[in-house]
């Protein structure tokens, strides 16, 4: 290399290589041994660069000019082509330039013979701040020069050399570095990775209680921070595991990442961008599988460095978090990547206060420093205090005030202050996330073991299938062969050729259960979106892995997969051995799908029973048993508290000894003190179809009433900006119609409670003199008139 600046850097480069010291350039890998912080691989390089820049900027003015002269063209005459001053007495040993005597301005250049003053004449009247800025670029040029010589990957080396020349040119011209060419300017995708991950947290975990939801938010911050400092695989490595077209696109993104994100971490002369803020789903698709494996492996290797209270979070919950995120990254119809993403409204979303999170929630340095402390280990992840979140919020208090308690309540409501108090007494703070130990309770749910193993990364679930249009992935083909073997062994009556044909048929997909890299079970299915159902063809788990809840957890994953794809009905033919399993999974012989929809579409099997299952999109099936467990704990605590309030102990009943055959329940001493009330004298319709017809008729009359207009649809935020901050459980006639259509109202009480909720919400939000308040009063009287006419309550 003929560049004088490059020649001046050679002695330092040789010393670095001979001593084995890690350079401060951008070539160090994210998980290399030279890093002090496994989560922030660029930190040590950045510290070394900053330290060197501080030393150089502390030089006297003359020494600074000498250093800049190395990168400054000679201006003695127009004919001189020297582009950098060369010291006639170069340092004999590396790093001696820090102690060497400062050269005078009259010192001649070893290359062109002109004085140092001729090279730095343009810096004579330049401010000290500008001189320091240029010196910072000099240090970055030195680091990049070493990175060029140390880097073995050709693509990465070319980028380093381009940036080296760019900064070299900027020093010469005293300009700001700007990356030019066909790479474009950041951001490169919208929505970006950060927004997509935050959307994922809202989409998947908005139904959780605030504390559990905050845990998921902290995991998302940790993942984003790791991604911002992680070293991506080179295009050469990526090319070995993918197709040519994808490798070409990845090379462009990799070059952008080096120029705009990775190199600027330790070379701050270049403008820096966060990886998660300028890239989106396309890059994440390319890197997620490898990055996930590297991250989890790094955590397992360094688990002894983790703080005990953080170990469970990182080793147990983080793998589950990444598995669920993987489904949304590679899923065809995931809503989290839509530009207008909003949290889907559902009954489950009303379990606690909602937070609309924005990228500002995690991009600030204060929030990130809370996520990972200054410790060198990932064990310092903080899931404790909640950082204030920027964005739109429902500002609902954890515990209700006295004024809240005095508000009119719908009959049957449990005071929220009591529920909050009970929640604080439940000893398992992570109950909504599943058990933390291997010691399961005697009454544990069937899928509890499987859920625990999935969170720990022991088992994985993947929807796979064969393709005739794309080059098949070797791993997927191996899994398909494994599935064919499992189905053949577990379903001996089924011809092997038939199993093979369906498993490898591109129209069929299989939800595979993977343990230790091998297939141990799966469900083969075919989706009929136009008909609104899916046929389950094969379902099996290998014999030595049964009775562990894998079958239940497998079916729950399949249900959630179909809810995301808006298919809410399963059909399958079950033999006599499988009927019991399918019944436990919610299947029955009562088929909800009209016969015209499936006749001619599904395969008929002799000696098998057709069974169906209707899915409820508001149920999080993979966490359903945990939610039920939590609800049972709350009810149990409420009962215990109620029992504790009843201090008086009554003697047993002695009347039966005297020949009395029966007594009224209300005559039992103390029965009323327990909260028992006589059953209402209204008629409870037991026939579902009769109840449906009666409630439908009542609701039609209510909707047709002239005072029903304010309650026809959900309240719009634009019309009442503070409504959802005051009203915790909104209700309207449109929602009631939808619930009625889906057969939600299995009793008259549920129907009446929703109508009463509409009236109560209106009275709570509006003043008594308002038109809305008056409409609610009139409509309430009309509603109860119709209820009495139908004989559902006593007249």
Give a verbal description of the structure:
This protein has 795 residues and is mainly α. Among the domains are: 110 residues, no CATH class; 138 residues, no CATH class; 162 residues, Aminopeptidase; 103 residues, Histone Acetyltransferase, Chain A (Up-down Bundle). Helices cover 46% and strands 6% of the residues. The protein has 29 helices and 6 strands. Helix 6 packs across helix 10. The termini are far apart. It comes from Nothobranchius kadleci. It catalyses: L-lysyl-[histone] + acetyl-CoA = N(6)-acetyl-L-lysyl-[histone] + CoA + H(+); L-lysyl-[protein] + acetyl-CoA = N(6)-acetyl-L-lysyl-[protein] + CoA + H(+). Belongs to the acetyltransferase family. GCN5 subfamily. Keywords: Acyltransferase, Bromodomain, Cytoplasm, Cytoskeleton, Nucleus, Transcription, Transcription regulation, Transferase.
Fold blueprint:
Blueprint (H helix, E strand, L loop, with lengths): L3 H16 L23 H15 L3 H9 L46 H4 L8 H23 L3 H20 L19 H13 L4 H20 L5 H5 L4 H23 L8 H4 L2 H21 L6 H23 L29 H4 L1 H7 L30 H5 L9 H10 L22 H8 L3 E6 L9 H17 L5 H8 L5 E7 L2 E11 L4 E9 L8 H15 L4 E6 L4 H6 L10 H4 L10 E6 L9 H22 L42 H17 L18 H4 L6 H9 L6 H18 L5 H19 L6
Parallel strand pairs: 4-5
Antiparallel strand pairs: 1-2, 2-3, 3-4, 5-6
Helix pairs in contact: 1-5, 2-5, 3-5, 5-6, 6-10, 7-8, 8-13, 12-13, 19-20, 25-27, 28-29
Helical proportion? Answer: 40-55%
- In the CATH hierarchy, the architecture of the domain at 456-617 is 3-Layer(aba) Sandwich
Structural class: mainly alpha
CATH class of the domain at 456-617: Alpha Beta
Report on the biggest sheet.
6 strands, mixed
Which shape, going by the Cα principal axes? elongated
Computed CA radius of gyration, to the nearest angstrom: 35 Å
Termini distance?
101 Å
State the CATH topology of the domain at 456-617: Aminopeptidase
Strand order of the largest sheet: 1-2-3-4-5-6
What do we call the CATH homologous superfamily of the domain at 456-617?
Gcn5-related N-acetyltransferase (GNAT)
User: How much strand content do the residues show?
Assistant: 5-15%
Domain Bromo: 703-773
Domain N-acetyltransferase: 463-616
Region (Disordered): 1-55
Active site: 535
